[in-house]
Design brief:
The chain has 7 helices and no strands. It is mostly helical and about 110 residues long. Helix 2 (about 20-25) crosses helix 3. The radius of gyration is 19 Å and the shape is elongated. The termini are far apart.
């Protein structure tokens, strides 16, 4: 598993931010970003949230809970998934079956276009 510091650095560089630019975005001193990346210090969860927003990723990705930096970044999609999860099983299965069909149709059209 990749460490927090490595993920932070990768996301920062991918976004094209210097340590100073990221520090400014999240209201920190630039030297602390380097300390986070070298694993010399650990940020608070509030700081991780601000960094995730600035870097256009998720807290879960930065903390190593997932390897997908895009997972559940869209709050409206997350809200829909929560609503779907609260439905009765039969209704949930019908919606998922329909969604699977739509996704397969999209993938097929992409393959043959």
């Amino acid at each position: 598993m990749t460490s927090f510091g490595k993920k932070l650095r990768e996301c920062r560089e991918e976004k094209g931010f210097s340590q100073s630019k990221l520090a400014k975005e999240v209201s920190l001193h630039h030297s602390i970003i380097g300390r986070y990346e070298r694993e010399e210090a650990k940020p608070t969860i509030d700081v991780v949230k601000r960094m995730a927003i600035a870097l256009d990723t998720t807290v879960g990705y930065l903390l190593g809970e997932t390897e997908d930096s895009e997972l559940f970044k869209d709050p409206t999609m997350l809200k829909r998934l929560k609503e779907l999860n609260n439905l009765p099983d039969h209704d949930k299965n019908c919606i998922l079956y329909t969604l699977d069909g739509l996704l397969q149709n999209y993938k097929t059209r992409q393959t043959y276009s």
